[in-house]
UniProtKB/TrEMBL annotation, chain A:
PROSITE patterns: ABC_TM1 (PS50928). This is ABC transporter permease. Keywords: Cell membrane, Membrane, Transmembrane, Transmembrane helix, Transport. It comes from the Bacteria. Belongs to the binding-protein-dependent transport system permease family. It is a multi-pass membrane protein. The chain crosses the membrane at residues 71-99, 132-149, 237-256. It comes from Seohaeicola zhoushanensis.
TrEMBL record, chain B:
Gene3D superfamilies: P-loop containing nucleotide triphosphate hydrolases. InterPro entries: AAA+_ATPase, ABC_transp_ATP-bind, ABC_transporter-like_ATP-bd, ABC_transporter-like_CS, P-loop_NTPase. This is ABC transporter ATP-binding protein. The lineage of its organism: Bacteria, Pseudomonadati, Pseudomonadota, Alphaproteobacteria, Rhodobacterales. Keywords: ATP-binding, Nucleotide-binding, Transport. GO terms for biological process: transmembrane transport. It holds the Pfam family ABC_tran. SUPFAM superfamilies: P-loop containing nucleoside triphosphate hydrolases. The keyword rRNA-binding does not apply. CDD domains: ABC_NikE_OppD_transporters. It comes from the Bacteria. Belongs to the ABC transporter superfamily. The keyword Metal-binding does not apply.
TrEMBL record, chain C:
It is found in: Cell inner membrane. The lineage of its organism: Bacteria, Pseudomonadati, Pseudomonadota, Alphaproteobacteria, Rhodobacterales. PANTHER family: DIPEPTIDE TRANSPORT ATP-BINDING PROTEIN DPPD, OLIGOPEPTIDE TRANSPORT ATP-BINDING PROTEIN APPD. It comes from Seohaeicola zhoushanensis. This is ABC transporter ATP-binding protein. Its main location: membrane. GO terms for molecular function: ATP binding; ATP hydrolysis activity.
C-alpha cells in the first residue's frame, strides 16, 4: 500500500521534535540555565549553534528543553483528557437512554466553553503552573474524546459479536472492556494525535500569557513571550520558538490526518 | 418442555410523524405462542419484518416482551434477577446470521469460543475449546488464529462452536445459513443435525427460506407482519398448507425442484 | 452481440476467470450459477469493461464484432448504459439517497441521449410504467428510503433500461428480496427481455430464480465454465459432477421425517471447501472434491465437450458418439 504524503511528512516532523525532546533529557549542546550577560545576543557559532538570548543563554539548548516541556504537557493533557473522555463516551454508548443524553449535553457545554477562558480562571484561582496548564488542556479534550468514542462505540454495539457476547452472559461493562474498546482504538488514537497538536498550541498560548510553566524551565510559549519586547533588536529569539511550534503542530496534525487516511477504509476506497 | 413462549407481544414506538399526534406503534410480534421439547427443532419461516428476529431476541432475553411470558426450562426469563439470568444464559445460546460480523475481528478464535466459559468461571477452558472445535469439524490448532483467516462456512462453524461450548439445552439459530453458499449451507445444516443428535439440543431455527427450514425442522411456524399464520408438525404444514401465504412460499422455494 | 473468446482475468498467480468463451445474441436469456469465487461476477464486470485495473486480462471480447482489447475507458463509457447495463444485488446502496428517484433515472437520458429536462422526465415516467411501479407520477418525486426493497429494485431496472441497452446484466438481482417479490422481479426481467428483444445475463446462486428467468444456463466453478446448456435440461439431468453436487446440496421444500431411530436424513454435500484462487488445481478446478475423479484430473484441464444441445468440461464425461 502506498503511504499518504501527509503521513510521511508528519512522521518525520514528529520524529525530529520527539528526538530533540528525548535527547535533551541526557544532553544539550550547552547548559541552558547558565547566564552570561557579556555574551548576550551572540551570533550563531560552533559553541552556540543558534546564538544566545538577552541573558546570554544558549538558544538551541533552550529550544530542545522547551520541546521536552511541550511534549510532556501535551502528553499528560491528552492522556488525561483522552482517558476520561473515552471512558465517558464508552459509558454513554453502553448505557444509552438518558445517561447518554446527559453525557452528550454536558459534552456540548464543554465544547461551547472557551478553553483559554477556563485556563485563565484556573490560573486565577490556583495560581499559574504547569500542572494547571495540563489540567486546563485536559479539560478541553474531554468532550472531544467523549464524542469520538461514543460515535465509534455505538457502531460497534450494533455488531453481532456484541450480541454474541451478551448471549455469553457478559454485562455491559465487560463488553465495553473486551469488545468495544479494542475496536474503537483506531479512531481514538487518530484523534489523540490530532489533539496532541492542539495541546502543543494551547500550551504555547498559555505559557505566552504566563499561565503555564514558570521560570526558569523553558517552554516555547514563554520564550516567545520573553522575545516579544525584543522583536526589533533580536527577531531570531521569536522566530526560532515560533518555527518549532509550527513544526510540532503541523507534524502531529499531518500525522493524525495521515493515520486517519490509512485506518478509515471508507476514505481509502474513495481515493 | 425446554422452551415455552405464551402469548407474547412486542410493540415498538415509531418516530412521531406530526407534532401533536401520538407516535405510531409497530406491533413487531403479535400474541405469539410456541413451545419446543428437548432434542426437537422448531422452525420459524417468514420474511423481513415478519417479527421472527424480534421473537428470537426475546427468547434470548435481549429484549423484554410487552405482554406474555417466556419460560426456559421452567424459569420465567423476565422474572429472573440479572445474576440469575446470566447464570442461566449458558444453557441457551445463539448462532447469528453474519459469519463475518459475529466474531470480534481483534480476538483469536479460541478467545471468542472461550468467552461464555470465562463468564461462568468454568475450569478446563482450553480443553473444552478444543472439544468444541472438534465437534464442529475444526482443528485444535485453529484456536490461535483470527477470524479473517477463515472462510464464511468455517466462521459459521466457529460461531457454532462458541454456542455449544457451554453445552446448552437450546440453540437459537437466526438465519444461520442464509449468508452461505449452497454447498456450504448443506454442510452447516448437516452439522447442526449432527450436534442435535450428539448433544440432545433443542433448536429454534429461523429462516426466510422454507426449503432450508423444511430440511431440519420437526415443527413449523409461519409468520408475517408479526402474526402467526399457521403452525404445526412440519410434514403437515408442508404437505397441506392452510394459508395462501405459506403456499406462495412453497412456490418460491419449489421452482428449482 | 457479445462474444468472449478464451477470455481470462488473473491477479498474478490467481486466475479469477479462465479461458471463458461464450456468445450472447439479442434476446438470449442466459443464467450464470456458481458459488463465491466461481468467477461469475468477474465475468459480468468484464462484459462491462470494469475488470479491476490490477488484473491481467487476456483473450478477446468482441462487441458487435469489434475487438475491445484496445478500448479505452472513454470508449467503454460510451458503451455502458447504451450497449450494456447492469443491476445489482442491494438496491438501497446502488441509489443515491439524497436524490429523488425520478431524477436519478432521468440523468442518463440527459447525459447520454441529450434529452432536455421535460423529455427526460416524460421518458422516466414511461420507464416507471414499463417496470410496473404503481402510481408512477408520485413515485418519481420520492426518495429511495421512502420505497420498499422491491420498488427500489424496479427503479434500478428502469435506470438500467433508460438508454435501451442491448444486454442487461443482473447480478444477484433477487437475493436481497422477499420470496413473493423475488418471483415478481424475476418475471418482470423476463417480460422486459422478451418485449425489448434485449439479452439478459442473470447471475445468481438461487437456482429457483435462474430456472424461472432463463432459457440457457452456465455453471461456473473456480473461474471455469464447467457446464452449459438449456436450463431445464441441465437442472433436470446435470452432467458435470459439480453441477450434480450443487443441485443435490440444495434443500427441497418437501417434508423430511425422522427415521425410526429418530435420525433425520442428511443433505447430500460436496466434501471440502472451495480452495483459494491461487491454490486451485492446474487441471480441473473441481479436482480434490470430485467424486468421480481420475488420476490426471488435477493436472490436465478438461476441454468443453458438446453432446446434443449441451456441453460440459469433465474427463469422466461419457459423450455418446
Amino acid at each position: 500500500m502506498k503511504l499518504p504524503v501527509n503521513l510521511l511528512i508528519g512522521a518525520v516532523l514528529v520524529a525530529l521534535v520527539i528526538g530533540a525532546a528525548a535527547l535533551s533529557l541526557v544532553w544539550t549542546p550547552q547548559d541552558f540555565t547558565v547566564m552570561n550577560v557579556r555574551n548576550k545576543f551572540a551570533a550563531p557559532d560552533t559553541i552556540h549553534w543558534l546564538g544566545t538570548d538577552q541573558l546570554g543563554r544558549d538558544l538551541a539548548s533552550q529550544l530542545m528543553a522547551g520541546a521536552r516541556n511541550s511534549m510532556a504537557v501535551a502528553l499528560a493533557a491528552v492522556l488525561l483528557g483522552g482517558s476520561i473522555g473515552t471512558a465517558l463516551g464508552l459509558l454513554a454508548a453502553a448505557i444509552g437512554g438518558w445517561v447518554e443524553d446527559l453525557v452528550m449535553r454536558i459534552a456540548d457545554i464543554g465544547f461551547a466553553f472557551p478553553a483559554l477562558l477556563f485556563a485563565i480562571m484556573l490560573a486565577a484561582v490556583f495560581g499559574p503552573s504547569l500542572t494547571n496548564a495540563v489540567l486546563a488542556i485536559a479539560f478541553i479534550n474531554i468532550p472531544v474524546f467523549a464524542r469520538v468514542a461514543r460515535a465509534a462505540a455505538n457502531q460497534v454495539w450494533t455488531r453481532e459479536y456484541v450480541a454474541a457476547a451478551r448471549a455469553a452472559g457478559l454485562d455491559r461493562f465487560a463488553i465495553s472492556r473486551d469488545h468495544i474498546l479494542p475496536n474503537i482504538a483506531a479512531p481514538v488514537i487518530v484523534q489523540a494525535t490530532i489533539e496532541f497538536a492542539v495541546a502543543i498550541l494551547a500550551e504555547a498560548a498559555l505559557s505566552y500569557l504566563g499561565l503555564g510553566a514558570q521560570p526558569p524551565s523553558p517552554t516555547w510559549g514563554r520564550m516567545l513571550s520573553e522575545a516579544q519586547t525584543l522583536m526589533y533588536q533580536a527577531p531570531q529569539l521569536a522566530i526560532y520558538p515560533g518555527l518549532c511550534i509550527v513544526a510540532a503542530v503541523m507534524g502531529f496534525g499531518l500525522l493524525g490526518d495521515g493515520l486517519r487516511d490509512v485506518t478509515d477504509p471508507r476514505l481509502v476506497r474513495e481515493r | 418442555m425446554i422452551l415455552d413462549v405464551r402469548n407474547v407481544t412486542r410493540r415498538y414506538r415509531l418516530p412521531r410523524r406530526a407534532l401533536l399526534q401520538p407516535p405510531p406503534v409497530l406491533v413487531a410480534v403479535d400474541n405469539a405462542s410456541l413451545s419446543i421439547d428437548r432434542g426437537q427443532t422448531l422452525g420459524i419461516v417468514g420474511e423481513s419484518g415478519s417479527g421472527k428476529s424480534t421473537l428470537a431476541r426475546m427468547v434470548m432475553a435481549f429484549e423484554r416482551p410487552d405482554q406474555g411470558t417466556i419460560r426456559f426450562d421452567g424459569h420465567d426469563l423476565n422474572a429472573l434477577s440479572t445474576a440469575e439470568l446470566r447464570r442461566l444464559r449458558q444453557r441457551f445460546q445463539m448462532v447469528f446470521q453474519d459469519p463475518y460480523g459475529s466474531l470480534d475481528p481483534r480476538r483469536t478464535v479460541g478467545w471468542s469460543i472461550a468467552e461464555p466459559l470465562r463468564v461462568m468461571g468454568a475450569p478446563d477452558t482450553a480443553r473444552r475449546v478444543d472439544e468444541a472445535l472438534d465437534h464442529v469439524g475444526l482443528r485444535a490448532a485453529d484456536a490461535g488464529k483470527y477470524p479473517h483467516e477463515f472462510s464464511g462456512g468455517q466462521r459459521q462453524r466457529i460461531a457454532i462452536a462458541r454456542a455449544i461450548v457451554t453445552r446448552p439445552a437450546l440453540l437459537v439459530a437466526d438465519e444461520a445459513v442464509s449468508a452461505l453458499d449452497v454447498s456450504v449451507q448443506a454442510q452447516i445444516l448437516n452439522l447442526l443435525m449432527d450436534l442435535q443428535d450428539e448433544l440432545g439440543l433443542a433448536m429454534l431455527f429461523i429462516s426466510h427460506d422454507l426449503a432450508v427450514v423444511a430440511s431440519i425442522c420437526d415443527h413449523l411456524m409461519v409468520m408475517q407482519h408479526g402474526k402467526t399464520l399457521e403452525s404445526g408438525p412440519a410434514h403437515q404444514v408442508l404437505a397441506a398448507p392452510s394459508h395462501p401465504y405459506t403456499r406462495s412460499l412453497l412456490t418460491a422455494a419449489g421452482a428449482a425442484a | 452481440m457479445f462474444e468472449l473468446d478464451r477470455f481470462s482475468v488473473a491477479f498474478g498467480s490467481a486466475t479469477a476467470l479462465r479461458q471463458a468463451s461464450l456468445t450472447i445474441r439479442p434476446g438470449d436469456r442466459l443464467g450464470v450459477v456458481g458459488e463465491s469465487g466461481s468467477g461469475k461476477t468477474m465475468l459480468a464486470l468484464s462484459l462491462m469493461g470494469m475488470a479491476p485495473e490490477a488484473a491481467q486480462v487476456s483473450g478477446r471480447l468482441l462487441i458487435d464484432g469489434k475487438d475491445m482489447s484496445a478500448a479505452t475507458e472513454a470508449d467503454w463509457q460510451r458503451l455502458r448504459a447504451r450497449k450494456v447495463a447492469m443491476i445489482f444485488q442491494e438496491p438501497m446502496s446502488a441509489l443515491n439517497p439524497l436524490r429523488r428517484v425520478g431524477d436519478t433515472v432521468a440523468d442518463p437520458l440527459r447525459i447520454h441521449l441529450g434529452m432536455d429536462r421535460a423529455a427526460a422526465r416524460a421518458q422516466a415516467l414511461d420507464l416507471f410504467r414499463e417496470v410496473g411501479i404503481p402510481d408512477p407520477e408520485a413515485r418519481l418525486r420520492q426518495f429511495p428510503h421512502e420505497m420498499s426493497g422491491g420498488q427500489r429494485q424496479r427503479v434500478l431496472i428502469a435506470l438500467a433500461l433508460a438508454c435501451d441497452p442491448a444486454l442487461l446484466i443482473a447480478d444477484e438481482p433477487t437475493t436481497a428480496l422477499d420470496a413473493n417479490v423475488k418471483l415478481r422481479i424475476t418475471d418482470l426481467l423476463v417480460r422486459l427481455a422478451e418485449q425489448r428483444g434485449m439479452a439478459l445475463l442473470f447471475i445468481s446462486h438461487d437456482l429457483a430464480s435462474v430456472a424461472r428467468a432463463t432459457q440457457d444456463i452456465m455453471v461456473m466453478y473456480g473461474g471455469d465454465i464447467v457446464e452449459r446448456g438449456p436450463t431445464a435440461e441441465v437442472l433436470h439431468d446435470p452432467a458435470h459432477p459439480y453441477t450434480r453436487g450443487l443441485l443435490g446440496a440444495r434443500p427441497d421444500p418437501a417434508p423430511q421425517q425422522r427415521d425410526a431411530a429418530g435420525r433425520r436424513p442428511r443433505l447430500p454435500t460436496i466434501p471440502g471447501t472451495v480452495p483459494a484462487l491461487h491454490a486451485l488445481a492446474a487441471g480441473c478446478r473441481f479436482s480434490g472434491r470430485c467424486p468421480v475423479e481420475r488420476p490426471d484430473c488435477a493436472t490436465v484441464k478438461p476441454a468443453m465437450r458438446a453432446f446434443g444441445t449441451r456441453s460440459a468440461a469433465c474427463h469422466a464425461l461419457e459423450v455418446p458418439a
